[in-house]
Amino acid sequence: MKFISTRGQASALSFEDVILTGLASDGGLYLPEVIPQFSTTDIEAMRGLPYNELAFKIMAPFVDGEVSDVDLKDIIDRSYATFRHDAIAPLVQTGHNEFILELFQGPTLAFKDFALQFLGNLLDFILEKRQQKVVIMGATSGDTGSAAIEGCRHCKHVDIFILHPHKRVSEVQRRQMTTVIEDNVHNIALEGNFDDCQNMVKASFADQSFLPEGRQLVAVNSINWARIMAQIVYYFYAGVAVGSPARKVSFSVPTGNFGDIFAGYLASRMGLPIDQLVIATNQNDILHRCISRNDHSPQPLEHSLSPSMDIMVSSNFERMLFDLHGRDGNVIAKLMEASKSGSITLSDDALARARELFSSYRLNDDEVLEVIAQVYDRTEYLLDPHTAIGVQAARKTRRNKAVPMICLATAHPAKFPEAIQKAGCHDPVLPHHMSDLFDRKEHYQVLDNDIALVHRFISKNIHE
Ligand SMILES: *Cc1c(COP(=O)(O)O)cnc(C)c1O
What we know:
The protein is of the alpha/beta class. It is 42% helix and 14% strand. A six-stranded mixed sheet has the order 3-4-12-9-10-11, with helices on both faces. Helix 5 crosses helix 9 (225-241) and helix 6 (143-152) packs parallel to helix 7 (171-178). The mean pLDDT is 96.
């Protein structure tokens, strides 16, 4: 299997090489050249498979033998062994034909564990084989950083540097990162906001001359193909559990960078009979505006109660645009160039095709609190603020009540206790394995928003 850039210029890469790369050299994102297909019979045969076995079936066509079947199975087994629920991704019912897919049973309590536990193990495997070492540099507003650190803390061939905006991530989120005391883990609290962190990481990828000879940067944000690939699995797992392929199924996805829901889109392209994919956003609603009224103009960032969805522009939407425009890299290159000086307008045809599968809805913070309180009142089930957006968006946009609606629960409520308290619900309790989080020793470095300073810190702390 080859992987190609959405902008059509960069050369195609193999599976292993695409995992070790960030953006393509032409500025695009990588996608598989062909989308694997599963027939109705193939999907029927997925019924009853444990999560790990299903994960192998879904991922194998992308890996295409570059990692042997035995090794891939072993990487998958180790990646999900750290989850605290035997189902890995359990379903819970919250309404008539309405389900919650709990994607927060991993070590850092957010869905990002699904991809980042896997990516850490996969990276170490590839690097061991190549006798190579790499440096991970990533920016986080919370959940990505802790999941990436947890995924890479035991990697022998990876030094990981995570930048978070100083004093602007929640205490639970900060402590999940800074209490991991390992030689290869480095937390940088940057004097700035999340955009400053992200810009610094982007500039570092563009010019990696600050790294020692032979090292390169690897991306852990959702431009990394491994993240999308690992996330496709739970759509199939949940779909089959509620009766696919005989029954259609719908999903509602709390959306920020469009990585999670793009995996759902791919599941649909691969053969899962998805009726509706709901893009659920907070007040940072560029995707909702795009789908509902073809307005894809960046607006100033607003800080919300669902901080992991606070984005101005969703990077993975480019992968979607690529498919909506006949997979023509030249069209996307032009579109992205034009978007620098303003917004993107979709053709009527592209928009119509997107609307066949996608619907969208946006909630503000007050509405989020209402939903948390209401669902708790009716079911005693506690939603985190991100998941609450997905649940309400599903209820508002649902086209066919006979089709099961699965709402992705992207975080555990204990990660966002402030919102839960504001909603008037009881304090969410951290799972047992994290109950001493507030007593653990923290370690992080506060640095000025100065790229030369950060680069010096990194090169000084990279291991031989
Ligand atoms: C990252 C994150 C999201 C957004 O996912 P995308 O793939 O960026 O769309 C939603 N909810 C939570 C809790 C997250 O951590």
